[in-house]
Amino acid sequence: MIYADNAATTKLDKDAFVAMIPWLQDEFGNASQPYSFARKPKKAIAEARALIASCIGAEPGEIFFTSGGTESDNWAIMGSALGNLEKKTTVTSMIEHHAVLRTCEAIERLGYPVAYLDVTQDGIVTAEALESIITNRTRLVSVMYANNEIGSIQPIKKLAEIAHVHGAIFHTDAVQAIGHVPIDVKELGIDMLSASAHKFNGPKGIGFLYIRKGTCISPYANGGAQESGLRAGTENVAGIVGMATALKKNCDEMSDIADRLRKIEDHFLEILDQAHITYIRNGADNRIPGNVSVSIKDVSGEMLLHRLDLKGIAISTGSACDSVDTQISHVIQAIRVPAEYAEGTIRVSFGRENTETDADTIAKALVQILTK
Ligand code: PLP
After folding, report:
1. Of 60, 128, 155, 262, which is most buried, counting CB atoms within 10 Å of its CB?
2. CB 362 within 8 Å of CB 301
3. Which residues line ligand 1 (CB under 6 A)?
4. Confidence (pLDDT) at 327
């Protein structure tokens, strides 16, 4: 099997797996208990928090563990709306993940207004677009760091600056970016950032929300005093340790992996070009390494996915999170891919385990299906 759907999830790193084992077996104590048996897990959580903070330029006390990207996004958006009595506006983009979009719909139902930003054909939220919509009645601006379907990386620093000029908080869903491109929250002016471990070779079911000190947000889960009383629930020690190990490793190896992935992408596209396949490559030039979203003329992406699957190749059409919904994704619609190409959209997302041989095999299999 060739796996090239790393934007959907990644393989758990071996070192992360090994680092998790003690916390699942011998050292299973509840970190919040006052006795000595809780000391080691408590220390492991503190160390993991500090390690994660150091990877993104944050303070350890600004990292709040969650169950993943979805929960972090829900918390950032719900928490900043519900944390204030005044129903000010949330601004977000049309190409956000459903974890953001559906949460925005939920706060709209509660009477909190939401404004949606259009994007360019490259999938970019421009400074001008934000300037034209933001007012002093905006509470939160939430724009994803990198898009999960087409990989476009947003001008985060500029967007955060604009949000701050208008007295708004800036949140970014960095689920696709963290561990893949360098991120320094202080340098970029980010107030809140969502992350999910399984997108950077960590375990599933664990993530975090970075909340800059002093940011006004209501608790996500009420109960115990974990996570400074903002997110109750017994800590997932193994998940937290595995996430920190995987993030540190990916950050240390980031530039080598990125260089390799760019070569793999180029090789894949060269084969399509040599076979004269008519396609549009989606996304901006500045995109997540390994993301290849192509819209191929007069073909069904769904058919390509299944035919490649029969050849033992796992890729995705548009967004994997949408795989039950065969309609053209909201992202492909928002970037205005022409109708004769839109349905033929596939996303091949190479990860650090992939080789140039994988790219070669996938591209040749695709050409064979398309030219038959
Ligand atoms: N945000 C983005 C951009 C994503 O790609 C995903 C997952 O695909 C999520 C949020 C949700 O993350 P999780 O499924 O880990 O909760």
Report:
1. 155
2. no
3. 68-70, 73, 97, 99, 144, 148, 173, 175-176, 196, 198, 321
4. 83
Give the list of residues 6+ apart from residue 96 with CB closer than 8 angstroms, or none: 104, 142, 143, 144, 173
Q: Which one, of 224, 230, 226, lies nearest residue 210 by Cα? A: 230
Instruction: Supply the pLDDT for residue 322.
Output: 47
Residue 216, helix vs strand vs coil: coil
363 pLDDT above the threshold of 50: yes
Question: What is the 301 CA–ligand 1 centroid distance (Å)?
Answer: 22
The yes-or-no verdict on residue 111 having pLDDT over 50 is yes
CA of 303 to the centre of ligand 1 (A): 25
Q: pTM for the whole thing?
A: 0.97
pLDDT confidence of residue 372: 82
Distance 371 CA to ligand 1 centre (A): 34
Nearest CA to ligand 1 atom 13: 69
pLDDT bucket at 235, cuts 50 / 70 / 90: very high
User: Does position 10 have pLDDT exceeding 70, yes or no?
Assistant: yes
Both tokens of residue 287?
Answer: 């995109």
CA distance 91 to 184: 23
Residue 320 has pLDDT above 80, yes or no: no
Over the chain, what is the mean pLDDT? 96
Task: Report the pLDDT value the prediction gives residue 325, as an integer from 0 to 100.
Answer: 54
Q: What gap in Å lies between CA 198 and CA 70, rounded to an integer?
A: 12
- In what helix (H) or strand (E) does residue 74 lie, and over which residues does it extend? helix 69-82
Instruction: Return the residue whose CA atom lies nearest to atom 9 of ligand 1.
Output: 69
Catalytic residue flag (residue 321): yes
Q: What is the sign of the dihedral through the CA atoms of 67, 72, 73 and 76?
A: positive
For the stretch 281-294, pLDDT in tens is 999 999 999 999 99
Query: How many Å apart are CA 31 and CA 240, to the nearest integer?
Result: 12
Nearest to 301 by CA among 263, 329, 264, 273: 329
Best residue among 10, 147, 321 to mutate for probing ligand 1, ranked by most atoms within 8 Å of CB: 321
Nearest-atom index, ligand 1, CA of 320: 8
CB atoms within 10 A of CB 22: 16
The Cα–Cα gap between 332 and 338 comes to: 9
